[in-house]
């Protein structure tokens, strides 16, 4: 099993040490992640409301995905350690694929959001969800396993020098 990161690698695109890419990816994940559910609700209920909900979730998810991808690309280019991991390249490619699928889904539904929801809109939204899940998992790997976008507070830095393990609770 791979060892967790030993040294934090801060983001270059951050506000007050808080990396902007991980702060913005939640929006496309949430919006694009629920599109298949809205599509299934439309298929099951036949109510055009759900096809329109799916369309607008794609619009917002795609727009926020563009914002997140610009911030992620900047970190990818500016933080050399990201490019040194296979997970960094894989995350980059999977995120581009996700955005491409979301854009395809948007273009598919642009002229007729209700009429084009089934079957290809549903198929594309499910494919987007699968690739989105993979991209998110890889992004988590970059943060939690490799320490990308993390930092240490000064108080934590002093504790790291002592190399102490947490104490076990006292058993009586």
From TrEMBL:
Keyword Membrane: yes
Keyword entries, A-Z: Membrane, Transmembrane, Transmembrane helix
Domain DUF2231: 17-150
Transmembrane residue ranges: 20-43, 49-74, 86-108, 120-138
InterPro entries per record: DUF2231_TM
Protein name, as recorded: DUF2231 domain-containing protein
Organism of derivation: Alkalisalibacterium limincola
